[in-house]
Write a structure and sequence with these properties.
Strand content: 25-35%
Distance between the termini: 94 Å
CATH class of the largest domain: Alpha Beta
Helix content: 10-25%
Structural class: alpha+beta
Number of domains: 3
Largest sheet: 9 strands, antiparallel
Number of helices: 14
CATH architecture of the largest domain: Alpha-Beta Barrel
Amino acid sequence: MGKNFVSHSLHNDTIISNLFFVLFMSLWWSIFLAACTPASRPAPASIWTVTQLRALDPSDTHLPALDLTALYTRHTTHDLEIRLDLLDFQNDGQGDLALALDWLPGGDEISALEGSTRAWDVLITIPTEGMTTVQELNSRLGAGQFPTPRLVRDPQLDTIILQINVQRLPAFNGVFHAVAYSSLAGTQTIIDVIGPVSSETQATGRAPLMLAFWNTMPAHTPAQALRRWDGAHTGPLGQRHGLRYLLNAAERSRIPIFLLDTKTPLSLAALDALGVMSKIKFLQVQGLLSLPETLPESYFGNLPDWAMEYAIQHNREIAANFGLSGSQLQFASYLPENSSARLILMLQPDADTLQTSITRYGDHRVLPIPVTSDAPQQIDANGLNLTMRRMLLAAALAPDTLHPITMLGGDLPHSNWGDARVAGETMQYLAAHPWMQPMRDADILSQPSLNGALSDTIQNSLPLQTLLLEQWRNAPESISKSLAWDELLALLAPADPQHPDLAALRAIYLGDFGNLLAAAAWKRQALPIRSEIEITDCQQDTDFDGHAECLLFSKDYFAIIDPQGARLSLLMARRADGTVSQLVAPSSQFAVGLSDPSGWNLAEGVQADPGVIAGAFAGPWEEYILEIFPKGIRLSAASLSKTFRLTENGLRVEYGSDSPVELRIPLGVAPESRFTPGWAAHYASEDHPLGWAWGVTGGAWGLIQTSGRLTHATFGDDLPALSQPENPNYDYPPGHYFPFPLSVVTVNAQGNFWVQIGVLH
């Protein structure tokens, strides 16, 4: 027993001795590594400020890895810290860096620095590989008295930081001079020098820059919204890409950005459906996100002044609904004749540089945003590329009188700034180089104006055809008039990609605008109080196609039947509380051009875009014979007949067909609700005898009933999927590709059958 006890004791002592040895070696190795090897990146609290910048140096060498660009100094509690920036720091053994310091009387000159007459106290050599060495040049130091600096190398930020214990520096009062130079590895061949500079000097160079983006949320459908927010394999680098990653990067790095065309009704509705409006509001309040007032695109020409003012006010009210504040900046595709904005932002195509200045043009201050053609990406897998770094450095060293603003950002879907991996690293780079100064609203507005002509490439004086707008202006106030304006905004919304035929395609569907104006005139009709009285009018060309449409209306319902395609183009209803709501809408009221452009045929009228559902019951596209009777109409073709009549319960459509029929009914119930917070989740559906109801909780509901077989799909069939990143392996439902806020009912039947559309009371 005693022998075993001794054996175990010896064994335990051995274990303890081994543990002490391991701990000792670990501690010794940690101290060794701290003195000789790179440390990890500093914590965010240690970010350097522009007041600590002592010198900026132009990019003037042929070796970016040895091109010194900036020198910083600062004191911490225990250390003197000196930071050196390189244009493109690489651990490739290509060269060495050296730093000389002087704070004591006496010292010696450094032979490598020809022409320098200062006597230096110490020379620190920093090879790109290997250990740092210290050469003491002043006898006042005493041999081995200067502490070995601790190095923090960060190739990602192109920085090297030396940390020197000030407690071991004799007679150090915090004031010193420094010079740094780079040389080819193992030689005295100087490549670049920065300094000499005093620790009390503050460098004046600054590079004001603006991070501005457009096409930030061109989203008409849940699929587009999700792809633009958090798309899978959508960016130029083939990685996950979207507005989400740009915003996250800006938030983490505290870098302000400008989203030029986000504050439009359609984009805000899409962002709200994604459930991310709280993030947008937070970043705006933090001053990290600028949202200029945005004018519609000029696909059909410029808006007249009164329409422009209405558009701005309309957009501002909807933005306020979502909790966003107004802006003194305005983003426009053309120069308005009158504008109350303090600064107008306009794209300048085919620019030859990314540097710009505010120009005064008449009574306007205009900031052209240069768009360079066939330019390489500003950022890549290595972050901000060398061309951009050199350009920013040149801007920082330019004379103050030039006031150059470097414009970074661009067309977001085609820019690496939305890349999940690259955006964050680049924003950190900007934040870590404080002489690169991303501007906020107030900074932009305070920039001086230069006298000069505005480039012809950003002037566009073609007026929009005013006939339609004047008709809208003179229409009585109603929900239909409001919806007509919303449809015009949809036709003038940004698109990506923007096909050359898009403007012509969208112009074809301005007929929907005319149909809504006809509905706006419905309230002017003098109708008997009794709802069983209907009026049929087949004399008006409401959609400007050169052919008359048929209007069926009573006190409670208003319908437009187009003989071309024998389709229901529009159905409005008056609810029990007297409010008017839309029930049926063509999909073109919400989006045009979502289909493959190779299938567009501009000669086919409303069939030009095969992705458009041109109304309920549309087709076949044959010649129809119109028959008008007191309470409705009948449209007959060789293959079938359709009878439309208003009843007390809505619009009833009776079919007669010998062959199977599949028809679609696009429901656009209460589309104005899109512009209120949480709108997408307010839509709901209910099953009913012989039918299905779809509408807004607490608002309008449409009810469809039929003697045929009914199926349905809606934009909201999988709203939870919008809170997740886009998944290319997930089978999204058909409604994922419908325009907001569309639902589509499909009826299959044969022979004689009926369909009825009305309000769910």
